[in-house]
Amino acid sequence: MAFTNEEKRSYLQEQNQQARLGGGEARIKRQHDQGKYTALERIEKLLDPNSFIEFDKFVKHNCTSFGMEKTQYLGDGVITGIGKINGKQVALFSQDFTCWGGALGMAYAKKICKIMDFAIENKIPVIGINDSGGARIQEGVESLAGYAEIFHRNVQASGVIPQISLIMGPCAGGAVYSPAMTDFIFMVDKTSYMFVTGPEVVKTVTHEEVTKDELGGASTHNEKSGVAHFLCSDEDDCLERARELLSFLPSGNFTKITQEKNNDSINRENSKLKDFVPVNSKKPYDMKEIIMEIVDNNHFLESQKDFAKNIICGFARVGGYKVGIVANQPAILAGCLDIDSSTKAARFVRFCDAFNIPLLTLVDVPGFLPGTTQEYGGIIRHGAKLLYAFSEATVPMITLITRKAYGGAYDVMASKHIDADINLAYPTGEIAVMGADGAVNIIFRNELKGLEGDAFDKKKAELVENYEKEFANPYKAAALGYVDEVIYPEQTRTKIAQYLDFLKNKDVQRPNRKHGNIPL
């Protein structure tokens, strides 16, 4: 007997309802009790209302080992599809912990690969919501193969479309390498964690006692390892901040620089900045206050704000143009570049360059951090990453020297010599090989030799003053064309907005090559 149309429609409704339940009501309740949303709830809260179109809702695994054929969930433990965030098209997948703890099998992996392929082919960002205990052991090598196919697509998508990972539960073992290859990672405090080997393995191998949160929690990866970019207080905060990040990102690497409507006048004077930078080069100040004065509507989204705090990276708009900002932070380590800050900034610069986001660099750097820890850790190699990233970039680059720009660090921080388009300086700018005190000790060591007490102090003070008059200013560099303009601080926003407008059609062709060999 043939089914009626009504019966077929009724069956479809039942299947849709079953798919929506994932691992069942009991497991959904357990998820909620842990302060976590379900996979589908996360999608619905992240996307614009009624914009989600699901793919492969009725996919099931084919595994018959270890009694797996007795348990099957529609969708196989991951929800995939497309939708919109603030009107922007995105592709996404959301792992469902209520189904086998979110464990990945081959059918599950193929769903993720399919949505990633769709994102790459249609040039739209892809977002992965991770909440999984790892590989589905019952499927053996097929699970490992599934992970590898996802990793391969992460690499193919890199620099083509933005990739964002939201860690909203466990992410352990080989699974961590997919988020690690994406552009930005969000983690939720107390409920998400990432590690290659868990606390039990660590205890067995190294005899260290450590909790999951200490080993790979959100704070650990935002403050110590630098693996994550955003630390979120709860899942609502995570989803809202992901929406905020998307507002600064293009859909893909094909997007041209455009100006958005802006109600914050570019002629707004930064009167606060008139005397903001201390004349005393040893006195710290907060570079973030300069950033907030410059950007549209005081809106600045900082990336990795709790890691390598001596450098600031983040997104903003100036005169309606989206920009990536890299800035030394004189309030931390005097703004010195070190291993972590160099790596942090280099990756950020390369992301902006890949997606045609102009770079604004604010410089107050006394040099690279000295010491055996830095040298043994490879500061030469890591510092070279930032130099490489700026030199490789072809996007519009504007650099502003607010105070110190010393030694090799001056060169590295988007100087004119590595192809920055516009280099500006405040009257407080100091461009030199090193600070006056150190320079005098080297240059005039013979004149100071033998002097003691007041005679030494007086002579040295005189030499330091003369050196500062000669070199501790931006005018020597300006005379050589290395600084395009010395500006009044209160005109900062206006000047940068004007230059951005002129640079929007910049087009630079680099020599043809497969790829460079960045000093990793």
Describe the structure.
This protein has three domains: 38-246, 2-enoyl-CoA Hydratase, Chain A, domain 1 (Alpha-Beta Complex), CATH 3.90.226; 271-433 and 473-503, Alpha-Beta Complex (2-enoyl-CoA Hydratase, Chain A, domain 1), CATH 3.90.226.10; 436-471, no CATH class. It contains 20 helices and 17 strands. The protein has helices spanning 5-21, 25-33, 39-46, 106-122, 141-157, 177-180, 199-206, 212-216, 218-223, 235-246, 287-294, 339-354, 372-376, 379-392, 407-412, 436-443, 445-448, 453-471, 475-479, 492-503, and strands at 53-55, 78-85, 88-95, 126-130, 163-167, 170-172, 184-188, 193-195, 230-232, 300-303, 311-318, 321-328, 359-365, 397-406, 422-425, 430-432, 485-486. Helix 4 runs parallel beside helix 5, helix 12 packs parallel to helix 14 (379-392) and helix 16 packs across helix 18 (453-471). The model has no long low-confidence stretch (mean pLDDT 93).
> Could you tell me the number of beta strands?
17
Q: How would you name the CATH homologous superfamily of the largest domain?
A: 2-enoyl-CoA Hydratase, Chain A, domain 1
CATH class of the largest domain, anyone?
Alpha Beta
Strand count, sense and barrel status of the largest sheet are:
8 strands, mixed
Radius of gyration: 27 Å
In terms of per-residue confidence, which ranges show pLDDT below 50 for 5 or more consecutive residues? none
